[in-house]
Design goal:
The complex is a heterotrimer of chains A (847), B (255) and C (377). Chain A is an alpha+beta fold and 847 residues long. Chain A is built from 27 helices and 21 strands. Chain A folds into 4 domains: 194 residues, no CATH class; 125 residues, Cathepsin D, subunit A, domain 1, CATH 2.40.70; 241 residues, no CATH class; 158 residues, no CATH class. In chain A, strands 12, 13, 14, 15, 16, 17, 18, 19, 20 and 21 form a 10-stranded mixed beta sheet that branches. A 6-stranded mixed barrel of chain A has the order 3-4-8-5-7-6. In chain A, helix 16 packs antiparallel against helix 23 and helix 23 packs parallel to helix 26. The longest helix of chain A is centred in the middle third of the chain and has 45 residues. Chain B is 39% helix and 25% strand. In chain B, the strands form 2 sheets. In chain B, strands 6-7-8-3-9-10 form a 6-stranded mixed beta sheet, sandwiched between helices. A 4-stranded antiparallel beta sheet of chain B has the order 2-1-4-5, covered by helices on one side. In chain B, helix 1 packs across helix 3. Chain B starts with a helix and ends with a helix. In chain B, 48% of the residues are buried. Chain C is 6% helix and 50% strand. In chain C, strands 1, 2, 3, 4, 5, 6, 7, 8, 9, 10, 11, 12 and 13 form a 13-stranded antiparallel beta sheet that branches. In chain C, strands 14, 15, 16, 17, 18, 21, 22, 23, 24 and 25 form a 10-stranded antiparallel beta sheet that branches. Chain C is globular, with a radius of gyration of 27 Å. The chains are: A alpha+beta (847), B alpha/beta (255), C mainly beta (377). Chains A and C meet through helix 2, helix 3, helix 4, helix 7 and helix 9 of A and helix 1, helix 2 and strand 4 of C.
């Protein structure tokens, strides 16, 4: 077997370029999968670490509403109810102005900590010279992780400028913590630790706790605690809270993984092609081997063995490249998650061996699966080695009906999976893949039809080259269709994703126009797409500007609910989109809905309704935990909204303040008097705030632009992945075309001998490859559109729950068909150049 | 368009037909490291037009090389080749190709048909490459196919034909564009004796009928008797072969 | 392609699919619990500048002096006692310490802001079963979690508290499976130790504390062991002491005796040991007669010799365990024996504090002994 494998591999040594492309193809596919998986895992880990570090070993947590838990309740809990293993926690986010990123502040009471966050332990040897005393007694003192401090060059006693709710202030770093576990030191990369009193002061949560950690060993203890909880507070297991957040980002991550898998699938075509070529070229060697007594099984294993070696080599490069790409991808993933779901303060690539293993096995397996069919074919080489080429192709020809039937089957299966009433994203993707597979199986038939058509056209426009090109494509279907199929899938993916993103962007753009009706918007600076709260006093400052006619405020926040997980709540005191809000369903006219809102009704957004199956009918309620216990709110409208895929619950500010006793706001919108200049007012407001607050004042137009910027930022990875997928496809087509052409070196020699000039050779080859590209391009138009439709109507709805207006644009098609054509032409250039330059005599001597 | 112009130019100098093939001091050698390997050395010969010239020699003696030099597929290391008024060695690669397309018909030992073209398309290949694809051309090509006895297989693909049939297609292809010079490299070498004889007879008949020059490399004894002139290559040198002493020559070959 | 191959392909693909999207759960390894040692920080590197020192005689005022003295760094309310109930004997200790980390409290808007921490020790010696129950508490002052106030008098840490009027103070504390709920009433007037309440601990000026005691407190109430309440009565002793710097640099520890004799007298002795060996001349004591009159005892007035030792299995520290005490004037000779050997605090602070039996020719009684500084350095 080893000898056989050596014979096999020696062949590839003589076809280095092709082997290199094969390895590169596998490597790229694996790299993309690994990069995405690493980024996803790291983002999840980062999230997990930041949650773990806050949760620690708590078995339960007492949580309150948006305003938190009263200090007094903790005293009661500890002294009157004697719950000893309890620790108060105050946490929140501030912005580190110099680092331009959010940082978590974890406020703890060191005396209550012992059973919980062991890494926060302030070890004796970490403390000297009264650091502990300063930590407790001095306001504005914090501890930082050693690594973070070193990275940011923070010395003991350094002052850090922080910002919260538009206000700037400074804290003093009094010491460093270097925990023994990596998890803990990682979590400290995005965190500062403060005494609970300091944290309350920094975060503006005087008298409030974020939650109370509990360590309960028996479930009946939990029951007892539930009994004593006042309304508005609830007892939860931290895992449940984690799962809310994990749930939120699941669809996002899943979509990325699915896209990354696509690159591997396209890589699969490449592997299939390369291996097939190598087998065709070695027919006589394989025949000789068979004649010498090598069994069919051994031939089969030899081919798989070769492929395994290539797979492994590809994986080795792929891992390196994957880690490199992963670092880049992670930045975007973390940014997107922070924009839409949950503030992540860490973005360190956690090279999990699990991801690498997954990529390795996936890469090698994909290669082996792709090689199965060629290996099977090689196995059947007769001992004479003489297998008439046209017979082989005829076989493919004969199989066309069956292959096409298979295509029909998978296509139907795909449609079946897609129309199946379900909201599983997995099924959606499975359906998408089935449709792609089905379409791939249509390629042989369609190629033959196209070529037949081109030959017919001969009568109209006779061209030897066109005829020869068409002929050689349809006479070597077993190879060309694979090349066409892979290019088609890649190109349709580009079309599909482009249409989806384009439609989405247009939809969002027009939606933004309907919701952003005010002239000026004021919020706190944030590196993410989410807003921070600030104190109400700012409203009067804004309202005092004489150019401003009226102001509206809103408070957005996340509410943990037992029924719906994390709920984004948006409390508006004067619905700025009152007249223009687009409803999927509304209970009465715009004015009636507004009235009902004031009376305690809520508007939910489309994703929320989709997720929680709220029907477009009057009489629905949602239940939210308020400071006065669970309360039901009638749903008075379902509106379109694209700001959160988790959905938003909109309610009137007075209602919100009544139930949650939270008087902060996170955004102020201002309308100016007619005739006033918006940018002048913006400048005036900025001047008014300067020195005192660090608000971001944006005109309507700028806010729309920055919203779209976030949108584009979110799709950066998708766009980049699209390019990577195309790259894999390009390598595939390059390798295929090269093999296809180099295999025919002798044929070109004969043509040359019979009087074909080098220029004509060049033209012939380019005709051939551009035909390949053109077919792939044309076939990808319908498939791309179907894919876009699936992405918009199935995947998007199931993942994010929003309606996108499907808007295919001609330019996407022209652009992508041009890409297909260009890629194919480019792929033909090198072999064409090589073949036209080759000496006739050498070409003739080629095997 | 450029191609067509040049091709026309090649056609205009149509005085090749009655011109002879002249080889002046032709040498072909390769360097293997420091060592020079001579394939052909100082060959000086003239082949008169309209004749059947046979080249005999053992495998690897340089017969094929000589033929490749004459057809312009290969270029000599030294010396000059003239066909009619053309000095082949002074033409560029492209000009040689066009010359070949217009004036030379090639028959290979391994038939070398284009697998993706039908029999008829293979035969009309040269004309089509030259941009001539008239109904007349096709009719003539079909006639030639009839002559080689393959009229009804015109639409078949080459790999469906037997070896003899394929070689007959090659002959048709070599003749279809009416070249003045036919070069055949062991045309029967890959056929059984009987088929070989049929093919050979056909080839010689067609050549003589059309008054073409035929230069053929072979080791078939019967050819010797049919040829107008016979040469042998020994020690990289060309020497006239005595038809009567052919036994002698072949006897030495088998050493 | 054959149908079979197709099926194979599809299955492989499906398997891959399921695998790549299988939820990833990283192995969870939480760091092992390590002891918080904020407490450690208290015993070292604490600044003493800015605090008041016990340097001069002062007048004591009540009830103010029952409460905290914020100018001084350290202060304690120290109750020990011997109890009897259902024919069983118990010893108990309930001590609440106050310690300031920095001299001045900063202006803070958070209720949690403080400069003081509290800690407490609560032990119960079950003599019959020779079990020593003990637990400690630490807390910051702030948000009502711990504190001290003079009127109404209350000292507390979490749910442990010492509170009530002077004639009836209630002590409440519970550990994991034991608890006390006791009322203590003074049977004698307050004793001001040392020189009218200024107790010099070494030659250095300021190495002193203000120190008063209630040496005989009638005690009633319940102790609870494993949820079983037992009615008890007996005698307790209160030491109140506050200072900023009490021990001299050369002192390695002390032995402290508080003995209550059946004849109505009490003896308090402390012996400050020097690190090189020997006894510091500032060691002293007092003898309180049945009428409550105090006689100061200087270092030469008494002599303590060790009769026995005991080595702790938990900490490996060897403590004296059994003494002979001789006092010159009044002439008393006593033998003091622990009611049980195992009354050691093995936690954050390591010391021995336990109930003892007192036997002499004329005198019998019970008391409490504290032994510190026996760990090897």
């Amino acid at each position: 077997m080893i000898t056989l494998l050596r014979i096999g591999l020696r062949y590839h040594k003589h076809h280095l370029l092709q082997s290199f492309l094969l390895i590169l193809g596998i490597a790229l596919g694996v790299a993309v999968v690994i990069a995405i998986d690493l980024a996803n895992t790291s983002a999840k880990d980062s999230f997990q670490t930041s949650v773990d570090s806050v949760v620690g070993k708590a078995t339960h947590q007492i949580v309150g509403g948006p305003s938190g838990i009263e200090d007094e309740f903790y005293r009661k809990l500890r002294i009157e109810y004697r719950v000893r293993k309890s620790a108060p926690v105050v946490h929140g986010y501030v912005r580190a102005v110099d680092w331009k990123r959010p940082i978590q502040v974890l406020g703890i009471d060191p005396f209550a900590e012992a059973p919980f966050r062991s890494y926060v332990t302030i070890e004796e040897n970490n403390l000297s010279g009264g650091v502990f005393g300063d930590f407790i007694c001095q306001p504005g003192t914090v501890l930082l992780g050693q690594e973070l401090a070193e990275r940011e060059n923070i010395k003991k006693g350094s002052l850090l400028t922080l910002e919260r709710g538009a206000q700037l202030f400074q804290v003093r770093v009094i010491g460093f913590i270097s925990p023994s576990t990596t998890t803990a030191s990682q979590s400290l990369q995005g965190m500062m630790i403060a005494d609970i009193a300091t944290a309350q002061e920094i975060l503006g949560k005087i008298g409030k706790l974020s939650h109370i950690d509990l360590y309960l060993s028996q479930e009946n203890e939990a029951e007892k605690i539930r009994e004593i909880l006042p309304p508005g507070l609830s007892l939860k297991r931290p895992q449940v809270r984690n799962s809310y957040i994990a749930q939120m980002i699941r669809a996002f991550e899943f979509n990325l993984s699915a896209l990354s898998l696509m690159s591997l699938i396209i890589g699969m075509f490449l592997i299939y092609n390369t291996i097939t070529f190598s087998i065709v070229q070695r027919r006589s060697v394989l025949g000789t081997l068979r004649a010498l007594g090598v069994t069919r099984k051994q031939i089969f294993l030899m081919i798989l063995g070769e492929t395994f070696v290539f797979g492994l080599l590809g994986v080795i490069f792929g891992i390196g490249l994957g880690i490199f790409l992963g670092k880049i991808v992670l930045g975007f993933v973390v940014q997107s998650i922070s924009d839409f779901y949950y503030t992540l303060t860490l973005s360190r690539l956690n090279i999990s061996s699990w991801s690498l293993l997954k990529g390795t096995v996936l890469g090698v397996l994909t290669a082996l699966i792709a090689a199965l069919f060629p290996a099977y074919e090689a196995m059947k080489t007769p001992p004479t080695g003489l297998m008439i080429r046209s017979l082989l192709e005829d076989k493919v020809f004969r199989y066309i009906p069956r292959i096409t039937l298979g295509g029909v089957f998978f296509f139907a299966l795909g449609i079946g999976l897609l129309v199946m009433p379900s909201n599983r994203i997995e099924l959606g993707f499975l359906g998408l893949f089935a449709i792609i597979l089905g379409s791939v199986l249509f390629v042989p038939l369609l190629t033959v039809v196209c070529m037949w058509g081109i030959e017919r056209c001969q009568n109209l426009y006779p061209s030897l080259f066109l005829k020869m090109a068409a002929r050689s494509i349809s006479r070597s279907l077993s190879r060309t269709t694979v090349a066409i199929a892979s290019l088609m899938v890649a190109v349709s993916l580009i079309i599909g994703v482009s249409i989806m993103i384009g439609s989405f962007r247009n939809t969002v753009e027009s939606w933004l126009q309907t919701v952003l009706t005010a002239d000026i918007f004021i919020s706190t600076p944030s590196e993410t797409g989410r807003l921070n709260s600030f104190d109400r006093e700012i409203i009067s400052v804004v309202a005092s500007v004489k150019e401003i006619k009226e102001v509206a405020t809103s408070q957005t926040l996340q509410l943990e609910t037992p029924t719906y997980g994390m709920v984004n709540l948006n409390a508006v005191d004067r619905d700025i989109a009152r007249k223009t809000r687009l409803y999927l369903w509304q209970d009465g006219t715009h004015d009636e809905v507004y009235q009902k809102l004031q009376e305690g009704g809520v508007i939910v957004t489309e994703p929320f309704a989709y997720r929680h199956k709220i029907k477009a009918l009057p009489g629905n309620f949602i239940e939210l935990p308020t400071n006065f216990g669970q309360k039901r709110f009638p749903v008075v409208g379902i509106s379109y909204s694209y700001s959160s895929d988790q959905g938003i619950v909109v309610m009137a500010s007075p209602v919100y303040r009544k139930y949650w006793e939270d008087h902060r706001v996170s955004g102020v919108a201002a309308y100016i008097h007619e005739g006033e200049n918006v940018s002048a007012v913006v400048a005036k407001l900025e001047k008014l705030f300067s020195g005192r607050y660090n608000f971001v004042v944006q005109s309507n137009r700028n806010l729309r632009l920055s919203a779209l910027k976030i949108f584009d930022r979110t799709f950066t990875i998708t766009t980049a992945l699209r390019i990577l997928v195309a790259l894999v496809a390009f390598i595939g087509i390059l390798s295929t075309v090269m093999a296809l052409l180099l295999e025919r070196t002798k044929e070109f020699g004969i043509l040359r001998a019979n009087g074909m000039t080098p220029g004509q050779i060049f033209r012939l080859i380019l005709w051939e490859t551009s035909l390949l590209g053109l077919i792939a391009g044309i076939l990808s138009i319908p498939l791309g559109t179907i894919m876009a439709a699936i992405l918009v109507y199935v995947i998007n709805i199931r993942s994010f729950g929003w309606t996108i207006i499907f808007q295919p644009e001609l330019s996407y098609y022209i652009y992508t068909v041009a890409i297909a054509l260009g890629a194919a032409l480019a792929a033909g250039l090198y072999p064409a150049w090589r073949l036209q330059k080759a000496k006739v005599i050498q070409s003739l001597r080629a095997e | 368009m450029n191609d067509i112009n040049q091709m026309n130019q090649m056609n205009d100098t149509n005085n090749v037909n009655n011109n002879r093939v002249v080889l002046k001091n032709i040498s072909k050698f390769y360097w293997e490291g420091e060592k020079r390997l001579d394939i052909l050395k100082d060959i000086q010969v003239e082949f008169p037009p309209g004749k059947f010239i046979a080249l005999i020699g053992k495998s690897g003696s340089g017969k094929s090389t000589l033929l490749n030099l004459i057809s312009g597929i290969d270029t000599p290391s030294e010396g000059e080749i003239e066909i009619g008024s053309f000095s082949l060695t002074r033409l560029t690669e492209k000009e040689r190709t066009l010359f070949r397309r217009n004036h030379i018909g090639i028959i290979f030992q391994f038939f070398n048909l284009i697998p993706t073209l039908t029999v008829l398309e293979n035969v009309t290949l040269c004309q089509e490459l030259g941009g001539y694809n008239s109904a007349q051309d096709r009719k003539e090509a079909l006639q030639i196919l009839e002559q080689v006895g393959l009229g009804e297989k015109a639409q078949s693909f080459p790999d469906r034909l037997s070896g003899g049939e394929q070689q007959r297609v090659s002959i048709a292809r070599a003749l279809a564009h009416k070249p003045s010079l036919i070069i055949a490299d062991e045309p029967t070498g890959n056929l059984d004796v009987e088929t070989g004889k049929v093919v050979l007879d056909l080839l010689i008949k067609l050549v003589r009928e059309n008054g073409k020059t035929l230069i053929m490399a072979t080791h078939s004894l019967e050819v010797l008797s049919l040829a107008d002139q016979a040469y042998t290559i020994k020690n990289s040198q060309l020497a006239p072969a005595n038809k009567n002493f052919s036994d002698n020559i072949l006897g030495k070959d088998e050493d | 392609m054959k149908l079979r191959t197709f099926c194979f392909f599809s299955i492989c693909f499906l398997a891959l699919w399921l695998w790549i999207f299988s939820p990833y759960s990283p192995p969870k390894s939480l760091p092992k619990e390590s002891r918080i040692s904020a407490i450690g920080a208290m015993s070292q590197g604490i600044q003493q500048e800015g605090f008041a020192n016990a340097e001069t005689l002062r007048e004591f005022h009540f009830p103010a002096d029952r409460g905290p003295h914020l100018d001084y760094q350290t202060e304690w309310w120290y109750y020990t006692g011997n109890l009897k109930g259902e024919k069983r004997r118990f010893g108990f200790q309930l001590t609440i310490f106050r310690r300031a980390l920095q001299p001045k409290k900063q202006e803070r808007s958070s209720a949690w802001g403080t400069n003081e921490i509290y800690f407490a020790h609560f032990s119960l010696s079950d003599i019959q079963n020779q079990v020593f129950y003990h637990s400690e508490r630490f807390s910051r002052k702030g948000n009502g979690l711990a504190g001290a106030q003079s009127s109404p008098f209350r000292v507390w840490i979490d749910d442990w508290s010492i509170e009530g009027p002077e004639n009836k103070v209630t002590l409440k504390a519970q550990g994991e499976n034991y608890a006390i709920d006791l009322q203590v009433s003074p049977l004698k007037p307050i004793v001001f130790q040392g020189n009218k309440g200024l107790s010099q601990k070494s030659a250095e000026k300021g190495n002193a504390s203000y120190y008063y005691a209630q040496t005989r407190l009638k005690t009633t109430g319940t102790v609870e062991i494993n949820s079983k309440p037992i009615k008890v009565e007996g005698l307790s002793w209160l030491d109140r002491e506050w200072s900023t710097s009490a021990l001299g640099k050369k002192q390695s520890g002390w032995d402290w005796f508080a003995l209550q004799l059946e004849n109505g007298c009490e003896i308090m002795l402390y012996q400050l040991r020097l690190s090189g060996g020997g006894i510091d001349p500032y060691s002293s004591g007092s003898f309180i007669n049945a009428k409550g009159e105090k006689k100061h005892l200087k270092v030469d007035d008494f002599e303590i010799s060790v009769l026995d030792t005991w080595t702790s299995l938990e900490t490996g520290i060897t403590y004296p365990s059994g003494w002979e005490i001789k006092i010159r004037e009044p002439n008393i000779a006593l033998e003091v024996t622990p009611l049980q050997k195992k009354q050691e605090w093995p936690d954050t602070f390591r010391y021995w504090e336990g109930a003892v039996k007192v036997e002499g020719e004329k005198n019998k009684g019970y008391g409490y002994v504290e032994l510190t500084g026996y760990e090897k350095h």
